[in-house]
Design goal:
By secondary structure, the protein is of the alpha+beta class. The protein contains twelve helices and 14 strands. α6 packs antiparallel against α9 and α10 runs antiparallel to α11. It binds flavin-adenine dinucleotide. The site of flavin-adenine dinucleotide has 29 residues, from β2, α2, α8 and β10.
């Protein structure tokens, strides 16, 4: 396999490079932890890799607090997410998804944008962002931006809505609702081992309540359970206005069944479809057992 690499130094150079290469086979490379494995498996001749890692642009590589939420540049690494106190305190589900990704070394280079754009059904950061009802900021070569909810970003296994002349520039994570006083937020990852392993099943939840425990808003997403990560809308609706401390055993089961209705897992070398469903059902039911007043 032969490929060429170019490394734009600014966002303007990057957009110009993408514009110029519209007729050629090209791929973006950020941390390249997914890309290199993919190219090893499916080599492409005469490929151009547009290296994103040298672009000097804080909007692309930094985390910034905004009035209505937090903006994460697409090139922010898993390590940056882990180190951000703001993310740890306000969005635990996102912090935990990054903390458990691969290994210390991989987290230094693996990016948020790469995790989303690779569109793997088991992308951990992508799953957490979907539970947070985050939005993707896409930037086209003309400099035009468009926003799209993470839950509408994936169109199939390893497929996204990104057009050929677009890249993922940032992600916006909204603040909690005004009436929210408590947040129950966790990333549950089931794998065959603790590190260096993609999820066999994952569940991300971010549940907001008022002082008394009444649910004001919730976001729940499942990973490695369907061709894409999925937002479990009916499970969120089920929780609306319920008191999180008073969920009965029957309700826990009903809630878990709602989540399971979004799962259509496959059997592969990591686990069988049956196992994935059983685990998903049990971890969904168990959410409420970990919730303390
Ligand atoms: C040993 C190992 C263990 C792993 N463990 C985990 C794990 O536990 N959990 C997990 O979720 N993942 C895991 N991964 C997968 C991978 O590390 C992550 O998905 C990572 O976040 C990808 O980021 P990257 O910057 O390396 O992406 P890259 O490999 O650079 O890119 C991935 C894809 O996204 C595209 N892309 C990248 N950035 C952009 C952008 N800004 N705009 C448009 N397209 C873009 C690329 O063209 C490519 O198609 C693992 C990988 C390895 C090798």
């Amino acid at each position: 396999m032969n490929f060429e690499i170019i490394s734009p130094a600014t966002t303007k150079d990057l957009l110009n490079a993408v514009k110029k290469q519209q007729r050629r086979k090209f791929r973006f490379g950020a941390g390249c932890t997914d890309l290199l494995l993919e190219l090893k498996k499916n080599p492409v001749e005469d490929l151009l890799i547009i290296n994103l890692s040298q672009v000097k642009d804080n909007e692309f590589s930094g985390i910034k607090r905004l009035a209505k939420g937090i903006r994460i540049g697409a090139r922010v690494t898993a390590h940056q997410l882990v180190m951000s106190e703001e993310i740890k305190n306000r969005f635990p589900v996102l912090h935990e998804s990054a903390l458990n990704l691969a290994s210390t070394q991989i987290r230094q280079v693996a990016t948020v944008g790469g995790n989303l754009c690779t569109a793997s059904p088991s992308g951990d950061i992508a799953c957490a962002l979907m539970a947070l009802e985050a939005e993707c900021e896409l930037l086209s070569v003309s400099g035009k931006k468009r926003m799209i909810p993470v839950r509408d970003f994936f169109t199939g296994v390893r497929q996204t809505v990104l057009k050929r002349n677009e890249l993922l520039y940032g992600i916006f994570v909204p603040n909690p609702e005004k009436q929210t006083k408590k947040v129950f937020s966790q990333f549950i990852k089931i794998g065959t081992r603790k590190s260096m392993e993609c999820s066999v099943v994952s569940l991300a939840y971010h549940i907001q309540t008022d002082e008394q425990g009444t649910v004001t808003r919730s976001g729940i997403a499942i990973g490695a359970s369907a061709p894409t990560i999925r937002f479990a809308e009916s499970a969120c609706d089920f929780l609306d206005d319920k008191n999180i401390y008073e969920i009965s055993d029957t309700q826990k089961k009903e809630f878990a069944e709602n989540i399971l209705s979004y799962a259509s897992p496959i059997t592969d070398m990591r686990a069988t479809a049956w196992y994935r469903k059983e685990v998903l059902f049990n971890i969904s039911k168990a959410i409420f057992d970990n919730i303390e007043k």
